[in-house]
Amino acid sequence: QVQVVESGGGLVQIGGSLRLSCAASGSISRISDMGWYRQTPGKQRDLVARVTFGGITTYADSVKGRFTISRDNVKNTVYLQMNSLKPEDTAVYYCYVLQMGVAVPYWGQGTQVTVSS
Q1: Which residue, 9, 24, 68, 71, has fewest beta-carbon neighbours within 10 Å?
Q2: pLDDT tens digits in sequence order for the chain, 117 residues long
């Protein structure tokens, strides 16, 4: 009974900031990567950022310099600090938690981020 719970989404003005959180709990163990994808209607789900157990980060080119991903391995929580937000960042953001040796990750339910003027 693995739970992946996201929080922190909402409506923000252009140039504003949000911090997303995603906590995994339950029977999950041996977590390797944690990260975030985002998706808009009619488009594919694209990687935003990920971080390995050892702290190695990867960012989409579109968010480099604006977003920062981090994790707390004790709390099994991953964060996404989103600064200088643009309308193009509007999407549903999905957290994932990957167990080592397993191909299919656990997914959060998604949290809406809307950036407007």
Answers
A1: 68
A2: 899 999 999 999 999 999 999 999 998 888 999 999 999 988 999 999 999 989 999 999 999 999 999 999 999 999 999 999 999 999 999 999 999 988 899 999 999 999 998
Listed in sequence order, the residues at least 6 apart from 15 whose beta carbon sits closer than 8 Å to its beta carbon are: 84, 85
Residue of 4, 113, 100 whose CA lies nearest to 48: 113
Angstrom distances, CA of residue 70 to CA of 1, 19, 25, 44, 104: 25, 11, 17, 24, 21
Instruction: Read off the tokens for 78.
Output: 């991953």
Measured over the CA atoms of residue 100, residue 61, residue 46 and residue 117, the dihedral's sign is positive
Cα(59)–Cα(111) distance, integer angstroms: 19
